[in-house]
Amino acid sequence: MKSESLARSGGCALCVGQQHCLLGRQNDQRRADWAPLVVERPMSKGELLLRQGELQPTFRIVKTGTVMLMCSGEDRVERPIGLFGSGQPLGTTGVLEQPAAVSCRALTAGRVCEVAIASASRQGLLDETFVRSLAQSYAQTNAWLAEWARIVRIRGVAGQLAATLLQLARIQRSTLVRLPSHVVLADLLSTTRETIARALRQLTLRQGLIRHDRWHCEIQREVLLGLAGGQKTPSASHTNA
Hints:
Largest sheet: 5 strands, antiparallel
Distance between the termini: 54 Å
Order of helices and strands: EHHEEEEEEEEHHHEHHEEH
Helix content: 25-40%
């Protein structure tokens, strides 16, 4: 897949994530002003899209796919802090001439929209309207991060995993969820791959999900909500008693 300008690819109007996007939710005229500056390009699974501590010359917005935000402290060990999807802005601290506060890596293949900050500044587009939309995006990101922080404090890995699946369904906007690898889920929830595998089997037995294959499952929302909230549900062998 090649990179292409947003104006050529049909613009924001055809994007499923328009209402969640920093640029897409602006009015028609503003989107038209931005379109010549936006380059849509593919992102590859495993690609490092953002590095903590670096000042970014561009900002990006995830169009399709799933990404993982990561942060390192004084120990310089990078740890995941959450998974995000369509509409997530990356590198926007560069607009404020500040280095990136987190790193970001693509978990799946997808597409991103990219804008050179200097070009947008020369066009006068980094104005009050843009800053207001940027503040809304920061508020959305903070809400997602707060939810991820809540998830890792749920008691028990099965409950954490149930809440993670619900969050992935929101990110992917579907009850048919594409699962990250056991390694990614283990890192996210600070556990082991073996524990994740056992928890997935447990959720399946409790009818919280239906596995389609290794990478996809259909979530049962009400069951997972109960498990994430600490409620006990009957095992599969007792559901018809």
